[in-house]
Design brief:
With about 240 residues, this protein is of the alpha/beta class. The protein has a single domain, classed as 3-Layer(aba) Sandwich (Uracil-DNA Glycosylase, subunit E). The chain contains eight helices and six strands; from the N terminus they run H-H-E-E-H-H-E-H-E-H-E-E-H-H. It has a six-stranded mixed β-sheet with strand order 1-3-2-4-6-5, with helices on both faces. The longest helix is centred in the middle third of the chain and has 17 residues. It is globular.
């Protein structure tokens, strides 16, 4: 990515952080940041929209649902500081896409190589359930990220909501799917220059019950790496 491209991506990230488009989400995220969870009572919560982060030259874009109320909404980085992130970053480390297996804060030294992490919604929603209107208000951020991440060729959707959001974003970029592919773990769809790969979300509901195991996540990430390398990218080794 050129210096100008990096500057545009950083400008978009600042725009995400400043967004106040959805009153319900603004109220909720700020309320959570004020009231806090007892375990984090001494910490200052981020309490704002959470931008995507990672390697500007990423071949793989990982898309989640939204920041967790006491995870990304607290730390200011998607998936950082919650159990879902613990599971995801450990997998990214094993795949050679991250320089460390844990992430607890924005300043903890985590670096992604060949990967970028984003979400359909950038504010923590009550009950992890954004409304369709809130989804549609936020989707242009994902579209613009994908447009700026010019080397990205693989999108890993964590869960059915992210799968649906990614399909909507790609349709908005001129890559509609017909018939519409159904979400499933390890399911794939070809949309223009992108390969969309499904993965069960690394929520505790899935990881504690064995619906998603480390091996299953590893297989999805390995598939994403192989697809990315086959589309003109390079295998990533730390």
């Amino acid at each position: 990515m050129t210096a100008a491209g990096r500057a545009r991506l950083e400008s978009l990230q600042r725009e995400v952080v400043a967004c106040r488009a959805c009153p319900r989400l603004v109220q909720w995220r700020e309320r959570v940041a004020r009231e806090k969870r007892a375990a984090f009572a001494g910490q200052e919560y981020w309490g704002r929209p959470v931008p995507g982060f990672g390697d500007p030259r990423a071949q793989i874009v990982i898309v989640g649902l939204a920041p967790a109320a006491h995870g990304g909404n607290r730390t200011g980085r998607i998936f950082t500081g919650d159990r879902s992130g613990d599971f995801l970053f450990a997998g990214l480390f094993r795949a050679g896409l991250a320089n460390q297996p844990v992430s607890v804060s924005r300043g903890d030294g985590l670096r992604l190589v060949g990967a970028y992490v984003a979400a359909v919604n950038r504010c923590a929603p009550p009950g992890n359930r954004p409304t369709p209107q809130e989804r549609d208000a936020c989707l242009p951020f994902l579209v613009r990220e994908l447009q700026l991440l010019s080397r990205a060729r693989v999108i890993v959707a964590l869960g059915a909501y992210a799968w649906d959001g990614a399909l909507r974003a790609l349709s908005g970029m001129g890559h509609p799917a017909s018939p519409r592919p159904r979400f499933g773990h390890a399911s794939e769809a070809e949309l223009g220059p992108y390969r969309l790969v499904g993965c069960f979300h690394p929520s505790q509901q899935n990881t504690f019950t064995g619906r998603l195991t480390p091996g299953m996540l590893d297989a999805v990430l390995d598939r994403a790496l192989r697809v990315g390398a086959g589309r003109g990218g390079k295998s990533v080794i730390l």
